[in-house]
């Protein structure tokens, strides 16, 4: 059962301008330490694209949750991670996790699907939240 779908298209040049203007103040407000570490390990346009895709993923997730960035859902509550296979996914904490749990249903567990891509000058992410039968 699909609970929510969200997508976001981001202009990479806009993220680059904000990074140039606000630097760490921006990254530390929006991204988790792990996301910053991953982006900063890259160079040039790849670094900017890494930030832009994660920005788009956070926006898409907030839409899929049905809240946007309200009801105690903040950017730092949504973290882009990679599963052991390398597949991108999302780790939700705090207000975002609470909102996800509100969408749940007895006997089911939420599953988050994420896809991201960038083709300069754009970055795109789509998030789908589904309920799957519990494995218990």
What can be said about this structure in brief?
This protein is α+β, with helices and mostly antiparallel strands and 136 residues long. It has helices at 12-22, 24-30, 33-40, 44-65, 94-103, and strands spanning 2-11, 78-82, 88-92, 108-119, 122-133. It is elongated, with a radius of gyration of 15 Å.
Give short descriptive properties of this protein:
single chain, 136 residues, alpha+beta, Ribosomal Protein L22, Chain A, three-stranded antiparallel sheet, two-stranded antiparallel sheet, 43% helix, elongated, holo-[acyl-carrier-protein] synthase activity
Coarse shape = elongated
What is the name of the CATH superfamily? 4'-phosphopantetheinyl transferase domain
Number of helices: 5
CATH fold node name:
Ribosomal Protein L22, Chain A
Distance between the termini: 18 Å
Amount of helix: 40-55%
The total domain count is 1
Name of the CATH class: Alpha Beta
Adjacency order of strands in the biggest sheet: 1-5-4
Counting helices, strands and paired strands, the structural category is alpha+beta
Order of helices and strands: EHHHHEEHEE
Could you report the average pLDDT, rounded to the nearest whole number?
95
Low-pLDDT parts are none
Largest sheet: 3 strands, antiparallel
Q: Which percent band covers the strand fraction? A: 25-35%
Which CATH-level-2 architecture?
Alpha-Beta Complex
Total strands = 5
Radius of gyration: 15 Å
């Amino acid at each position: 059962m699909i609970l929510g779908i969200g997508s976001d298209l981001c202009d990479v040049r806009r993220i680059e301008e904000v990074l140039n203007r606000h630097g760490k103040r921006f990254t530390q407000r929006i991204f988790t330490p792990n996301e910053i570490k991953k982006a900063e390990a890259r160079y040039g346009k790849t670094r900017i694209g890494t930030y832009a895709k994660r920005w788009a993923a956070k926006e898409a997730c907030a839409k899929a949750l049905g809240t946007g960035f309200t009801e105690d859902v903040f950017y730092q509550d949504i973290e882009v991670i990679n599963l052991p296979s390398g597949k991108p996914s999302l780790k939700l904490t705090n207000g975002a996790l609470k909102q996800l749990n509100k969408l749940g249903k007895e006997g089911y567990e939420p599953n988050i699907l994420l896809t991201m891509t960038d083709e300069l000058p754009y970055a795109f992410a789509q998030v789908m939240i589904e309920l799957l039968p519990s494995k218990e």
